[in-house]
Amino acid sequence: NTETLVEENIQTETPVATTSVKVEVKTLNYTKLQNRAVFEYPQFLNQPARSALAKLNLTLESGANEIFKKNTKELDDNLADLQKYGMNLDGREFVHEHKIDKTRIYTNPKTNIISLIYQNYVDFGGAHGSFFYGSAVYDAKTGAELKLSDFLQGDYVTFLNTYITEQVTQKTANCRNCEYLEGRVDAVDGKLVPESFALDADSLVLLY
Question: What's the predicted TM-score (pTM) here?
Fold first, then answer.
């Protein structure tokens, strides 16, 4: 159940500056017995009280606290179940982490786009924990979370499926860790366009 970060970088024609909105990463921490939880969420600094990003800050903070409460409850319930069934818990740690990749926070003052990549790790006592990745892309003017379809037009799904399949099979330099996708090209019935994406300094990044 380990999901590897696979990135497909599709170069844009014009490099993007990475200045403008400043992002602070807030952290919620929880430790109880063998349980440990971390939840990071963004806050956009120096925003006027009624601006779109100020409102988004409140939404993100509220959502983070709600999800964090749910995550810690899952950890506590899991530990209680393990104790109930008499499992040996010596030296064990159970983890639920949701972290922002602080090296991959991008803001574009020309388009008002803010892009974040999340790294998640969960270990509830199985043979090994699970990694998975996600992202969030926001419009700084409206505070709306954006989808891939907000940036690409036409039949981009067919184009990206073809392009990504070629990158995976040819193992090009643009595709990091693409060897992990080789066995999935046929299995996914040609649907290789993920839901998670980000916009870095000069390219569109698709996350698997």
Answer: 0.80
